[in-house]
Amino acid sequence: MSPKKQPHKRVTVLGAGSWGTVFSKVLADGGAEVTIWARRPEVARELRETHRNTQYLRGVNLPPTITATSSLRDSLRGAEQLYVAVPSQALRDNLRALKPLLPAGVPVVSLMKGIEKSTNERMTEVIADVLEIDLDRIAVASGPNLALEIAKEQPTAAVVASSSLETAHEVALAATNGYFRSFVNNDVIGTEFGGVLKNLIAVAIGIVDGVGYGENTKASIITRGLVEMTDFAVAYGAQRDTLSGLAGLGDLIATCQSPLSRNNTAGRLLGQGYALHEVVRQMDQTAEGLASVDPVLALAHARDVQMPIVEQVSRVLAGTLKPRDMAPHLTTDDEPTGERNSHDAQARTGTAFRWAFERAFGVGRDRGRGDRGPRP
């Protein structure tokens, strides 16, 4: 069934990198009139005059309903929704600048997948902290969304999470078109942490790929990595099955297997022997996973969550572990242990993969659903 038609919305996208530009196309193709705010005037000019972004999205023609400006004030004029796609470590400063310009009542949607290093806060927490708006006005969109594939209109899906299902539904309607489908939930914590944590596992996959290890090693890391992601997110209040959905398992698969992934690419360069500063210099866009390792580990230690794969990534980044020595370190113990490493006494029996299988094939479909609303 095709999505219901909605009145044209005027929306603003903060950030003109590859993801901000592609998501603008998603919104425009869904019927919205989109204004992109670009930090650099020359990028805004190119977007406005040629409907292209050659630095970040070469060869892609953008819809005529997209315009751009380097003026924050102009970009927000008349906006009915605001989507934020700036580097996570620059979010707070950008929000401070736009706060006095933000139209009243406008939903703010995070498209970012990082943690602020100085505070260990998720992006929606930074938004709430700086803008001082009700949590029901804040949403996050996440899923298996590689920018270049979406730019080519290859079909995919995402999930929009908000404490208000009404807000999530409104955003999902705007972010749905013939090739991009948005689902909704109200698990902001799980949806957001899924997007953050899969980047760290993707760095690990890139490292072992760069070393030259094969599919067995990568499959082991992906599987155990999903367990680490789930245990971490649940420890901070996420719903376990969210990590088996689009924002967890879906995003993890896409990011780990694709050379289009910036985090996978960064890991591969590390595995090939480049030092961290050399990797950062070679990357023309931010690999959020590199900046998120330390905050994630600090949060994990605070809740006594074991994350051996992420610990190994941290040591490779610090230069204290050779990339070739990383793959065998999939557990902290020399003695054999149970396959799950969760300390949650209420955890379901079996792995997150089993739960994903049950959901996919309708086994126990209503178990534990509660009042969370529609699920992907």
From TrEMBL:
Organism field: Gryllotalpicola reticulitermitis
Biological or metabolic pathway of the protein: Membrane lipid metabolism; glycerophospholipid metabolism
The protein's name in its UniProt record: Glycerol-3-phosphate dehydrogenase [NAD(P)+]
Top-level division of the source organism's lineage: Bacteria
PROSITE patterns with a match to the protein in the record: NAD_G3PDH
UniProt keyword list: Cytoplasm, Lipid biosynthesis, Lipid metabolism, NAD, NADP, Nucleotide-binding, Oxidoreductase, Phospholipid biosynthesis, Phospholipid metabolism
Biased composition (Basic and acidic residues): 337-346
Pfam families (alphabetical): NAD_Gly3P_dh_C (PF07479), NAD_Gly3P_dh_N (PF01210)
Biological function: Catalyzes the reduction of the glycolytic intermediate dihydroxyacetone phosphate (DHAP) to sn-glycerol 3-phosphate (G3P), the key precursor for phospholipid synthesis.
Binding site for sn-glycerol 3-phosphate: 113, 143, 198, 251, 261-263
UniProt main location, coarse: cytoplasm
Sequence similarity: Belongs to the NAD-dependent glycerol-3-phosphate dehydrogenase family.
This protein's record includes keyword Transmembrane: no
UniProt-annotated stretches for the region Disordered: 321-349
EC number assigned by the record: 1.1.1.94
Catalytic site: 198 (proton acceptor)
